Amino acid sequence: MATPREIRRRILTIGNLGQVTRALQAVAASKARRARDAALATRPYSHAAWEFIVDLSAASDEKLHPLLSRREPVQQVAIVLISGERGLCGAYNHNVVRTALDFADKLGVPVRYITVGRRGYESLWRSGRQIVAQFEGMPAVPTLNDVRPIARAAMDEFLEGRADEVYLARTDFVNLLTHRPVVQRLLPLLPTELETQVMAEYVVEMAPSPVREYIFEPAAVKILEEVLPRFTELQVWQAIRESEASEHAARMVAMRNATENAAALADELTLDYNKARQHSITSELLDIAGGAEALAQASEGS
């Protein structure tokens, strides 16, 4: 059994850890609120842009722009994996990495990865996956300029024929307590068709609006050359914002749970400390009583 001094030292250590986790919880809560507001503010525009892209691709010839070209059969795939830079956020990083790997394994074709975030890169590197590009150190509030190199790398994989399809593995923000890892097709810019069990299980379903007719001025080719790359960048930007909001929310919940666990453990140790202290006092009293009895017997004998 541990001594009262050892238990007291553990109580102080756990109390200090509880203060750290409480501070991290407050920081994560502040960041989560800002990230949530940013993600929700741009979500309608991002979804409308995706609908416009799909609508435009359905109304246009696939030959007008290479980002619209469908390749059959699919022989190679690229996945842009968006994860966190650090841990202390529960199962957030593990869930999105596991979803991406399960989806890739069920595709049955070679998969190349573009990683955004250190944790995803480390997990893929340890599992021996093929990583063609790595991006780390995203700012707290990423702009389109920060995201453009990531989108450019994804488009290069598709345009140069190294991937027949490109997917985004991200975490969809629902609320501060709920966020789920999903896979979203980025290229080619076509409606998501949930044809197989693999697609139905992992790919987020985004239903497009009814197709409308368009009149292109000055020309469809010039408009598509300008619009499609920009809207592809927008989809990556929104995915990163959703993932960041989910990461901060997951860290807030994880730190809250850690704080509560630290308090519960401190209470248990305090009870053990009181028991050990009482046991020590009782032992000392028994020793005193035993000593007094021994002295009394010695006095009677003399």
Summary?
The protein has 302 residues and is an alpha/beta fold.
How would you portray this structure in words?
This protein has 302 residues and is of the alpha/beta class. The protein has one domain (21-255): ATP synthase, F1 complex, gamma subunit (Pyruvate Kinase, Chain: A, domain 1). Helices cover 61% and strands 12% of the residues. It contains six helices and five strands. The chain has helices at residues 4-59, 92-107, 118-126, 144-159, 197-202, 220-301; strands at residues 77-82, 111-116, 130-135, 165-173, 179-187. It has a five-stranded mixed sheet with strand order 3-2-1-4-5, sandwiched between helices. Helix 1 runs antiparallel to helix 6, helix 2 (92-107) crosses helix 3 (118-126) and helix 4 packs across helix 6 (220-301). The chain starts with a helix and ends with a helix.
